Amino acid sequence: MVTDHPGDFDVMRARDVAVPTLGPREVLVRNYASGVCYHDHLIRVGVMKRGITFPLILGHEGAGIVQEVGSAVRSLKRGDRVACTQWTENCGLCRFCRTNRESLCAERKYFGHDRDGTYAELFKIQEDSLLPLPSEVGFEEGAILSCAIGTVLAAIRDVGRTQAGEYLLVTGAGGGLGVHAVQMARLCGATVIAQTTSPEKAKLIREAGADEVVIARDGKFADEVRRVARGEGVDVVCDNVGAPVFQEALRATARGARYVLVGELTGDTVTFNTARLFLKGVSLLSTTSTSRAQLADVIELVRQRKLRPIVTERFPLGEAPRVHRLMVDRKLSGRVVLLP
Known about the structure:
This protein has 10 helices and 18 strands. By secondary structure, the chain is of the alpha/beta class.
């Protein structure tokens, strides 16, 4: 599915393109499933611009079987089952690559953003961006491990440093990141308060493990979250929405809270009084994507069934425009996948 230029849903069209030529460190993967992320929509409509050139194949979530390897590839061979991270072409040498922060490498390119991605039957990606997928984990599950689960593992466990007994707020809890953030927070021992604007998603959110589900009314939810969280507020925020909920989520924080930005759905600007942070000792943090080590942890957690990837619907690859429309209209829950 090739996007020729920014625009409405129909700018994505099925097209035959040449099989990409591999560099020494690159791998060609036959794709069995591609996750769909709101990030894809933001690129398609032109909200995200930096580093993006068209025509472009969207998608940064994929899993499949190795079809071909470059001359310098050592860790993978033809026929291996694999899942991918959201990035490619990192240098492997800088201080970020060598400290489990490859997504901050100056040379890395985001998959389906700076480089063609997974809305295709075949995709090309760097060896370092792939990990073996155990036979116990299906391709549809494998496709969503890095973005939908790895990103919230990074946010909640590593950046937010969530501890047992703390209260944690998940915004946008009915979405692909949100339902997995609920599970991750429970694994860390937190009491999970899940925020959503869609009452019809409450059942799925509770099944994912939320202790409380708060439905935003006219954009307001902070008072209810604070009431549930001992009257003081939450210790950690995993914000998968961004600007539309920022003010309310910040109001819902307790003293010493860690606010971790994960998603941004609109690209809008937020203004706030910085005293709201330092007078309560709130740390404003963020995470961008998933490292190899974090993806390896997710794969093992899923293999052991300590985490459950939630794939709610499956669509043929050619229905990508319809899927984007459903996503924007908030008619999708959890994560959905496109099947080449």
